[in-house]
Specification:
By secondary structure, the chain is an alpha/beta fold. Helices cover 26% and strands 21% of the residues. The strands form three sheets. Strands 4-5-6-10-7-11-12-13-14 form a nine-stranded mixed sheet, sandwiched between helices. The chain has a three-stranded antiparallel sheet with strand order 1-2-3, with helices on one face. It has a two-stranded antiparallel ribbon with strand order 8-9. Helix 5 crosses helix 6. The chain is globular, with a radius of gyration of 21 Å. The structure holds alpha-D-glucopyranuronic acid. Alpha-D-glucopyranuronic acid binds next to loops.
Length: 422
């Protein structure tokens, strides 16, 4: 698929060439061109009645919201199918300051289907909280350490050191800057990661070689009842299954996190799986933390055109018609309440609509308020690198769509804050 970006005054047209057929999808990056839009109040039921208290929120309105997201956007979130776990390799790292485990999580009846998790932990007498997140190109690309198993699953060719969808040694460490393991363990936290393509390769036919197809019988769900983002999110829950049996880990304090499409997956995982104590969405954009009804940056139509496998079929009904969606992404963030949530943007990442991410989080605060948890305490989006809020927190890093050391330092401060409070 070839993407061409054509600038036309302030409106951006993205020309998508797909199977020889091309279409122009308009996209706006001018604040003055954003038309007015209406958001549903999180504390009002679909029929307009008000939610009176926490009990009603938890027993009625929250399930109503989750069902709407299932039906219109992400699909079902199946239960577990984990049979067993095995720590395949354990080593001391960082001059004795930490340890590293390479773990297999067996998913089906046959031991041939497993996930490879890479876990770094500080040396500690007490169990430690862990950040759990998916990576884009195999555990081996998160560090230069040659002892990490080279991933032999399908990997997109646009990653360094990958050709014919196969990783080579030269892909080691290609995204190491996104995983500052030593920094994280030096602050007393662990970090677990897993290659998202092990759950479902990221292309329209990927489901045939992923859990949606391979675990269809065990999970009792047809592949079209969920989609790729759902499969990736579901994998994060399987990582949590493992963390719960690892004695070095305090699995009641797992923070699920993700960047970009994997941030969308992290949010969906946190919405469905309340075992995650908190969530971090980094530059997750459209279909993640950003409002869809705000016409800025990527749109539902772009998502459905470039990535038809990410969402359920029904989502196509809203291409070019976001205003008809019965929900918007602020409700996804609200469904995570009262658990702490951190949303981040990057100043040059207009495609992900930083302001739309901020506004969604601000709106979600209405539900946190029910629990007497303070919202962002600021109406306008803050300047770059001025984090705001406490348990509901936001920052906009200076620069491009990425996850950098600046972001991680803020995540660690956030973790210190939310866990110290308990
Ligand atoms: C594309 C896509 C985004 C996504 C991003 C990523 O830019 O349009 O929705 O978040 O890829 O995952 O890096």
């Amino acid at each position: 698929m070839e993407k061409k970006i054509i600038y036309c005054a302030s409106i951006l047209f993205i020309l998508v060439q797909f199977n020889g057929f091309s279409q122009r999808i308009p996209s706006n990056i001018d604040e003055d061109q954003v038309p007015p839009f209406v958001l549903t109040h999180p504390l009002k039921y679909a029929d307009g009645k008000k939610v009176k208290n926490i009990k009603e929120w938890e027993n009625s309105r929250r399930p109503e919201i989750l069902n709407l997201f299932k039906d219109h956007i992400y699909g079902e979130y199946p239960g577990a199918s984990v049979i067993d776990f095995k720590v395949v390799k354990e080593d001391e790292v960082f001059a004795g300051k930490g340890k590293r485990k390479q773990v297999q999580i067996y998913l089906g009846k046959s031991k041939e289907l497993f996930l490879n998790v890479l876990l770094y932990l500080p040396i500690s007498k007490a169990p430690v909280p862990v950040f759990a997140g998916l990576n884009f190109c195999g555990n081996h690309c998160t560090t230069f350490d040659s002892l990490i198993f080279l991933n032999d699953n399908w990997i997109a060719d646009n990653h360094k050191g990958v050709s014919n969808n196969t990783a080579s040694d030269s892909s080691r460490g290609s995204q190491a800057h996104r995983w500052p393991y030593e920094e994280i363990i030096s602050r007393g936290y662990g970090v677990a990661t897993l290659y998202y393509g092990e759950l479902e390769p990221d292309h329209p036919e990927g489901w045939k070689n992923g859990v949606r197809s391979l675990l269809k019988e065990e999970l009792r769900i047809e592949p079209d009842k969920w989609a790729a983002i759902g499969a990736w999110a579901w994998g994060l829950s399987r990582v949590q299954d493992y963390l719960e049996i690892d004695k070095d880990v305090d699995a009641k304090r797992t923070i699920v996190q993700g960047h970009s499409r994997l941030g969308k997956a992290a949010l969906w995982a946190a919405s469905n799986d309340t075992r995650f104590a908190a969530v971090i969405s980094n530059n997750s954009g459209e279909g993640g933390a950003a409002l869809s009804k705000r016409w800025f940056g990527e749109t539902i139509e772009h998502l459905n055109s470039y990535f038809p496998h990410w969402f359920v079929q029904k989502y196509n009904d809203y291409s070019g018609k976001a205003e008809e969606l019965p929900i918007d992404q602020h409700l996804l963030l609200a469904s995570i309440a009262p658990r702490p949530i951190y949303v981040t943007s990057a100043s040059e990442d207009l495609w992900a609509d930083p302001k739309g991410e901020f506004l969604a989080l601000r709106e979600a605060g209405k539900v946190y308020k029910l629990y007497k948890i303070a919202g962002l305490a600021i109406k306008e989006q803050p300047q770059v690198e001025m984090p705001v809020g406490k348990k509901i927190r936001y920052h906009m890093r200076k620069g491009k769509h990425d996850i950098q050391l600046y972001d991680w330092i803020q995540f660690l401060d956030f973790a210190d804050y939310i866990f110290k409070e308990k």
